[in-house]
Amino acid sequence: MRIVYINLDRATDRRAFMEEQSAALELRFERFPAVRADAISDETAHTLGQGWERPLSKPELACFLSHQTLWSELACAKEPMLVLEDDVVLSGRLAAALPRLAELTDVDLINLESFDRKRFVARNGRALGDVSIVRVHRDKSGSAAYLLWPSGAQKLLARARLGAAPVDAFIHSLKRLVSYQVEPALAMQLHILKARGIEPPIPIGSTIQTSRQRLAVTPENLPFHLRRLTTQVKLAGDHVMRLFGRRYRRTRVDDGDFQPRSAADQSRS
Predict the structure, then answer these.
(1) Are strands 81-85 and 2-7 parallel, antiparallel or unpaired?
(2) How far is the C-alpha of 261 from the C-alpha of 185, rounded, in Å?
(3) N or C: which end of the chain has fewer CB within 10 A?
């Protein structure tokens, strides 16, 4: 399968980091030059960025368009694609797990990462060697490491005709996607590792995450507020489904999978 990581031309340190992981895992990574925020016109930003719960920033749109381009390339393929962002730390289990995951059928997407937030999942999972997968019924965070099938790409592209959103919210809000989660997680973003007390292997930084102010309640902003209210109503429905066997919990993580290699090796000895 193709393993593609999204990387801005100027982010040379992250490119080196991803290539180091590629070599360590003995997997071939393909670099995809990320869409630049400064390449998006104001007109395009207005056209694409007004259909979610708030106006999108140009960096958010650039991230979305980068992923969308890969979905377009995948839609007519025959094998799944592993899509990575360049701020993700990968577990040593990944290389052994990928062939088992790629053989699955009737799947649109498998999320490999943990964003350390709760999500709605099925009661029971399915073992695949030293990892397992569990059906995801609702999630909202994380787009840094996911295995996507052509069927899933086609569904995402169809939804994209209606407008953009932050890419993780866009992916996980599409109920038509048949989505699963790997456990223990096979990937974690740098800032999530830092929050868990694990020193990231490279400095943390983001061109997307910015401080956001509450959207004012005005007639012009009413469509945004209505969309957010609709999301909250749907979320309430997901909580009701906990009465019928669904679970609301975090993805299992083995912190040892993400420790610096030397420390992990010492702990095994």
Answers:
(1) parallel
(2) 17
(3) C
Q: How far apart are CA 180 and CA 169, in angstroms?
A: 16
Better pLDDT: 264 or 142 = 142
Chain segment 165-180, per-residue pLDDT in tens: 999 999 998 989 999 9
Contacts of the segment 9-18: beta carbons below 8 A, 24+ positions apart: 9/33, 9/34, 9/36, 11/86, 13/202, 13/203, 14/86, 14/87, 14/202, 15/86, 17/86, 17/201, 17/202, 18/84, 18/86
Catalogue the E-assigned strands of the chain. Answer: 2-7, 30-33, 81-85, 88-90, 109-111, 119-121, 126-128, 131-138, 145-148, 179-183, 187-189, 247-249
Q: How far apart are CA 65 and CA 49, in angstroms?
A: 11
Instruction: Annotate 117-143 with DSSP letters as a single string.
Output: S-EEE-S--EEETTEEEEEEEE-----
Q: Share the mean pLDDT of the chain.
A: 89
213 burial class (0-12, 13-18, 19+ CB within 10 angstroms)? exposed
- CA gap 261, 256 in Å, rounded: 9
Q: Which two tokens stand for residue 126?
A: 């399915």
> Is the full-model pTM beyond 0.85?
yes
pLDDT at 258 over 90: yes
Whole-number Å distance between alpha carbons of 29 and 141: 24
| Best CA proximity match to 8, nearest among 30, 29, 31, 33 | 33
